């Protein structure tokens, strides 16, 4: 069943006009959420960027969460609005 689900995900077009945003404070449960997001991306069910918003993480927590959310990018709360604007502009150019 898992193999069929993975193959099904590869052939689906996937969501391309979205951004996943995860506000991270360094809590252990956030690692599990990022693993789920990475799993969706690996299966091809989600193809947009993953933004991790630093809301008080230590440098060790930052590196640990970046490993969990493969392909994720960390930004601050102040940078979030401009980062989302960049993604919107990128998607507008593609259509």
Question: Quick recap of the structure?
Answer:
The protein is α/β, with parallel strands linked by helices and 95 residues long. The protein has 4 helices and 3 strands; from the N terminus they run H-E-H-E-H-E-H.
Structural write-up:
- Strands 1-2-3 form a three-stranded parallel beta sheet.
- Helices cover 57% and strands 15% of the residues.
- It has helices at residues 2-11, 28-43, 59-68, 77-94; strands at residues 20-24, 50-54, 73-76.
- It is of the alpha/beta class and 95 residues long.
Label the overall shape: flat
Determine the N-to-C terminus distance: 35 Å
Low-confidence stretches: none
The residue-averaged pLDDT reads 77
Q: Strand-and-helix sequence, N→C? A: HEHEHEH
Estimated structural class:
alpha/beta
Instruction: Please give the number of β-strands.
Output: 3
Element layout with pairings:
Elements: H1 2-11, E1 20-24, H2 28-43, E2 50-54, H3 59-68, E3 73-76, H4 77-94
Parallel strand pairs: 1-2, 2-3
